[in-house]
Amino acid sequence: MAIDKDTARRVAHLARIRVEETELETLARELSGILEFMEQLAEVDVEGVEPMTSVTPMALKRRKDEVTDGGIRDKILANAPDARDGFFTVPKVVE
Amino acid sequence: MTQLTYREPPAKRIAGAVGEWEMVIGMEVHAQVSSKSKLFSGASTAFGAEPNTNVSLVDAAMPGMLPVINEFCIEQAVRAGLGLKAKINLFSVFDRKNYFYPDLPQGYQISQYKHPIVGEGEVLVDLEPGVARRVRIERIHLEQDAGKSIHDLDPELTYVDLNRTGVALMEIVSRPDIRSPEEAAEYVRKLRQILRYLGACDGNMQEGSLRADVNVSVCRPGDYERFRETGDPSVLGTRCEIKNMNSMRFIQQAIDYEARRQIAILEDGGTVEQETRLYDPNKGRTRSMRSKEEAHDYRYFPDPDLLPLTLEQAWVDAIAASLPELPDEKKARFVAQYGVTEYDASVLTAERESADFFEAVARGRDGKAAANWVINELFGRLNKEGRAISDSPVSAEQLGGVIDLIASGDISGKIAKDLFEILWTEGGDPARIVEERGMKQVTDEGAIEKAVDEVLAANPDKVEQAKAKPSLAGWFVGQVMKATQGKANPQAVNALVRRKLGVE
């Protein structure tokens, strides 16, 4: 599947990454290259092979249901460009 | 296990300008897991905290923070699945659902897409005695809640509170099997009841613990049956999704409005556009949420921070063995064991606590009498005073005592109500109160006869009238009951009065 310039522009926008119009052509070509490589991998016969989800024989780590965190509002808000009355504040989101 | 039998109701019809229409409704219910801490962080889930105080660095999506799953939330999702008779998937995967919004600091929601933790199940939605809709469940998956955006604190700014961010939700997705606004509300009510029985979700709709997204489309009679036969959704109309409703009443109103809106468009020769809408309860209308249209490309992919979730069948079996008796079974058992009506059984089993209370009262007593007292006297009074069953001033033991005193003939039904009042306001032991306050019913024939004779002697003119008009006997019975302060056995009085008047 080849990525064209329009798709590259749309994906960049969805990911909120600014890409200059002049860079789109190159980006589309590179993304297409990655997908083509994936398509090559897809040619390998994996019939009967379980998908590998991890390189180590580990299970998902779980924790107990206990409150061990929170109460650090100052730290949470420390990097916010703008914060008021304990809230993050951002330019009005129009619904 | 005893089971009640039900028939499915017909779909609701709406008369259009040209012919009749039906609606097809599917729902996505978001139920907050009753955990103390969040799905992937140790921050508290307590409602109503100061803004941004129940937030960890994981919830705020600080770089380098990693999610660690809460095992209680896994267990509750499995319990919910078992409670909805659903398939539990021993292998499930967490995915990232990508979109940008200020109350979602990660830029993605951790959810489950291709491999949810729970598969197909079903819910029996009771509508009236003997009538129920079987609604198929498609799946349940675990996901994170987003934060809260407040738009009305400032004209230029949106305020964001991340306390909710990362709280565990179970998204329960139904098939489009719901056929009227009333059924939709009853479906939510039934889900809520089951989840509360299981303890998986507190069901508090005011606090947002249970919210529903509703998919509504309209079609002509016969189309839905064709869809069920062929499985082809294209025979149905285009659907609209109404987001985020947390009231049964609004759910009904929104569906009703939305169905009529779509019918009007179609009858006008237009086409319904598939979109997300919001219900405005003040205006009683739904409106388009166009701002989110563009974000519908979520680019799901497996979350690389989380390994797949694998469960042991033995662990699932142990949870299944520990499930409480659920509403449908309990209701059927109440009907079979206590001889109460299906309607009364529904009322008694609405909440687990009330069902337990009833059983404590009914144990070793007449089930119908127990149901009558619990529903009419106790629930009636609790409702009137806005109290919960757990907060009842009259215990199951006390209420049982009242019923025993009626059964033994010690008090009449009328005196029993006075006794209930005393227990409600003052408390105490029913038998002792009856004894100490002289409330015992007079069953001694001699004493009753004496009272009857006195009344008859005092009213010779009425006696003459009654001989010609037997219905006047009731007046004498009333007079005797009054004279004995309600303590005489009414049946005995009635029999004696009639015999003495010769109007048997």
Automatic annotation (TrEMBL), chain A:
Keyword field: ATP-binding, Ligase, Nucleotide-binding, Protein biosynthesis, Transferase
An annotated Gene Ontology molecular function: ATP binding
InterPro entries tied to this protein: Asp/Glu-ADT_sf_sub_c (IPR036113), GatC (IPR003837)
Catalysed reactions, semicolon-separated: L-aspartyl-tRNA(Asn) + L-glutamine + ATP + H2O = L-asparaginyl-tRNA(Asn) + L-glutamate + ADP + phosphate + 2 H(+); L-glutamyl-tRNA(Gln) + L-glutamine + ATP + H2O = L-glutaminyl-tRNA(Gln) + L-glutamate + ADP + phosphate + H(+)
EC number(s) reported in the record: 6.3.5.-
GO biological process, one term: translation
Signal peptide positions (record): none
Subunit: Heterotrimer of A, B and C subunits.
Functional summary from the UniProt entry: Allows the formation of correctly charged Asn-tRNA(Asn) or Gln-tRNA(Gln) through the transamidation of misacylated Asp-tRNA(Asn) or Glu-tRNA(Gln) in organisms which lack either or both of asparaginyl-tRNA or glutaminyl-tRNA synthetases. The reaction takes place in the presence of glutamine and ATP through an activated phospho-Asp-tRNA(Asn) or phospho-Glu-tRNA(Gln).
Homology family: Belongs to the GatC family.
Full protein name: Aspartyl/glutamyl-tRNA(Asn/Gln) amidotransferase subunit C
Gene: gatC
Automatic annotation (TrEMBL), chain B:
Function description: Allows the formation of correctly charged Asn-tRNA(Asn) or Gln-tRNA(Gln) through the transamidation of misacylated Asp-tRNA(Asn) or Glu-tRNA(Gln) in organisms which lack either or both of asparaginyl-tRNA or glutaminyl-tRNA synthetases. The reaction takes place in the presence of glutamine and ATP through an activated phospho-Asp-tRNA(Asn) or phospho-Glu-tRNA(Gln).
EC class name: ligase
Summary of subunit composition and partner proteins: Heterotrimer of A, B and C subunits.
GO BP: glutaminyl-tRNAGln biosynthesis via transamidation; translation
Catalysed reaction, written as an equation: L-glutamyl-tRNA(Gln) + L-glutamine + ATP + H2O = L-glutaminyl-tRNA(Gln) + L-glutamate + ADP + phosphate + H(+); L-aspartyl-tRNA(Asn) + L-glutamine + ATP + H2O = L-asparaginyl-tRNA(Asn) + L-glutamate + ADP + phosphate + 2 H(+)
Annotated organism of origin: Oceanicella actignis
Keyword Oxidoreductase: no
SUPFAM superfamilies to which the protein is assigned, alphabetical: GatB/YqeY motif, Glutamine synthetase/guanido kinase
Pfam families recorded: GatB_N (PF02934), GatB_Yqey (PF02637)
Boundaries of every Asn/Gln amidotransferase domain copy: 356-501
Record's keyword terms, sorted: ATP-binding, Ligase, Nucleotide-binding, Protein biosynthesis, Transferase
Record carries keyword Nucleotide-binding: yes
Family: Belongs to the GatB/GatE family. GatB subfamily.
UniProt-recorded Gene Ontology molecular function terms: asparaginyl-tRNA synthase (glutamine-hydrolyzing) activity; ATP binding; glutaminyl-tRNA synthase (glutamine-hydrolyzing) activity; transferase activity
EC numbers on record: 6.3.5.-
The protein's name in its UniProt record: Aspartyl/glutamyl-tRNA(Asn/Gln) amidotransferase subunit B
